[in-house]
Amino acid sequence: MIIVGGPASNGIDEKLSEMLNVKLVKAEHKIFPDGESYIRIPESVRGEEVVIVQSTYYPQDKHLMELLLMIEAVKNLGASKIISIIPYLAYARQDRRFKDGEALSLKIVLNLIYESGSDELITVEPHKPDAVISYFKGNVKIVDPTPALAREIKKEVENPFVLAPDRGALERAERLAKELNSPYSHIEKERDRTTGEVRIKEAPHLDLHGKDVVLIDDIISTGGTLAQASQLSYNLGARKVIAAATHVLLVNDAYDKLTRAGIKSIIGTNTIKVENKNVKIADISDLIAVKL
């Protein structure tokens, strides 16, 4: 086995190489003056099982193209098998057509990855795991980041209550609650498919008095949903609110929005290169390693 680290491997390639005691090859990369990407694999991988590590966080299109170029180059060099580790899988939220005429982005991206030569895909908690498994024509392994997140969350809370911001995240909340040995529940939200605006519904059934509420989601993007959930939690008696997510994008003023809403700590993982130093990062490299 040889690990090939891409420009957006975020150090996971090096950690996997060390954990598994296998060779690491760094892909050579540059951007041409016209903005196009260049990739070269500088060593022979003929006859080897090759593990390519490349996340597809912002700029998504650039990182996705680099991934496809690496897969094609490794295939051309004669690798016996290609495994693509994509910690954060871009375009995964468009897993179906919400309105007529929309492109099915997830299916297109997965087809590109497979047709470029990837036999297997390993990714960390995509938005809809079943959709990834359904659309990718090769083998798929999903990494559950919950144990890594729980390790960091335990440092921040004393009397935890895990709260999912919608019904779709309830199973994720249940997994985390088991790790924290805590109760859990969810609140309801409504999304306007045209504007994207989200509104959190009231939750009079919840009693959060004295609780350290852990808001858990797969992605923190603009932060609007979790900010509303935090305000609701305090209204219901929460002592403290923290937010945790696998993929912390923090688009635009998301961090300020969350802190203004009373969120005391934000915890993410290293699937994404998080520039904000106030975000606590849980390393998921060991959870990926066991999938190889």
From TrEMBL:
Textual note on the cofactor: Binds 2 Mg(2+) ions per subunit.
Residues at the active site: 189
Residues annotated for D-ribose 5-phosphate binding in this entry: 191, 217, 221-225
Binding site for ATP: 34-36, 93-94
Residues reported in the UniProt entry to bind Mg(2+) 2: 166
Pathway(s) the chain acts in: Metabolic intermediate biosynthesis; 5-phospho-alpha-D-ribose 1-diphosphate biosynthesis; 5-phospho-alpha-D-ribose 1-diphosphate from D-ribose 5-phosphate (route I): step 1/1
Cellular compartments per GO CC: cytoplasm; ribose phosphate diphosphokinase complex
Xref: SMART domains: Pribosyltran_N (SM01400)
Residues covered by the Phosphoribosyltransferase domain: 150-247
Catalytic activity: D-ribose 5-phosphate + ATP = 5-phospho-alpha-D-ribose 1-diphosphate + AMP + H(+)
GO biological process, one term: 5-phosphoribose 1-diphosphate biosynthetic process
Positions annotated to bind Mg(2+) 1: 127
Cofactor or coenzyme needed: Mg(2+)
Domain (Ribose-phosphate pyrophosphokinase N-terminal) ranges: 1-117
Role played: Involved in the biosynthesis of the central metabolite phospho-alpha-D-ribosyl-1-pyrophosphate (PRPP) via the transfer of pyrophosphoryl group from ATP to 1-hydroxyl of ribose-5-phosphate (Rib-5-P).
Entry similarity comment: Belongs to the ribose-phosphate pyrophosphokinase family. Class III (archaeal) subfamily.
Name listed for the protein in its UniProt record: Ribose-phosphate pyrophosphokinase
Lineage: Archaea, Thermoproteota, Thermoprotei, Sulfolobales, Sulfolobaceae
